[in-house]
Design brief:
By secondary structure, the protein is α/β, with parallel strands linked by helices. The protein folds into two domains: 161 residues, Rossmann fold; 145 residues, 3-Layer(aba) Sandwich (Rossmann fold). The chain is built from 13 helices and nine strands. The strands form two sheets. Strands 2-1-3-4-5 form a five-stranded parallel β-sheet, with helices on both faces. Strand 3, helix 4 and strand 4 form a beta-alpha-beta unit. Helix 7 packs parallel to helix 12. It is globular and about 60 Å long. The relative contact order is 0.15.
Length: 357
Amino acid sequence: MTVPSTGTPAAGAPAGVLDSLGMFAAAAALPEQVAHAVGVARGLPGLPDREYVEQVVVLGMGGSGIAGDLMVAVAGPFLPVPIIVVKSYDLPDFVGPGSLVFALSFSGDTEETVEAAGEAAGAGADMVVVTAGGELARLAGEWGAAAVPVPGDIPQPRAALGAMAIPPLIVLEEIGLFPGATRWVELAVEQLGRRRDMLVSPGNLAEQLARTIGRTIPLVHGAQAVGAAAALRWKTQVNENAKSPAFAAVYPELCHNEIAGWGQNGDVTRQIMTIVNLRHDAEHPQVVRRFDLVADLLREVVADVLEVRASGEGDLAQLLDLVLVGDFVSLHLAAQEGIDPGPVPVLDEIKVRLRQA
């Protein structure tokens, strides 16, 4: 697989920007991370035969949970069996023999994922673990489960999307449930290289979007599964990198509820809210019309309506293309406020307090 590379120092944080964990460089390394993830997922022992898999279940929280959303969006429409994502301690009762369960945790110590994975293994599910270590790696050895190692030099779980999401796609291909996954990944790597080269150039799209959003609160709209996963990723990256509120909603559902909530407070929302529409090629024709109609309705009651259109061939390429733009937008939002995007002390505090209970 050919991996595009800029080979320029511009892939790091812009001069004078606070970035103690190297989040700008980590974002710029996504093409290489995705390409590398293919090889480490090949030839895993102990995978079930295709005919024995009745459903696919993905366990994960936070940045690892987004990897599950990506799997649903990209592989779900083509799988001959259902696939769901579980972001909780609780495991559906149907999980057992016949279930292929992917337990995704960057640290290996995410308590919700570890607990749900333990239940799944105890119920007789076939387990595949994707982690950099921790308790989940230890349990994988105890269970005799297939395990995919995640590079330990990635600074934060949210910077490991390629390392977490791509191996399960390759595993599904090797089992025979998702033929062609490798080719879709190759196309994604090509597009990510092109987009990355644009995003590390001065005055790029992400800088422009961040300046326009400014101190307003982004409400990110996407369509269907690809757009939903991309919009959620944008929201959470703004939350964690820029330490700012952000929200997400999905077409066509938002046309049945959310837009009714804009009628009373336009004098307020006009000052604090910016709509960001994430567009891709697989939108239903009626959804395309809905984007235009809603934009016309909301322009008078929000600060701005922005649009980012995906490039690349295939759902995976377009989803990761939107992800990469959003990652850089969130980093520039942090930079323009002098915020260090890497550390998330409030999340660490919650984990500490939970352990003390």
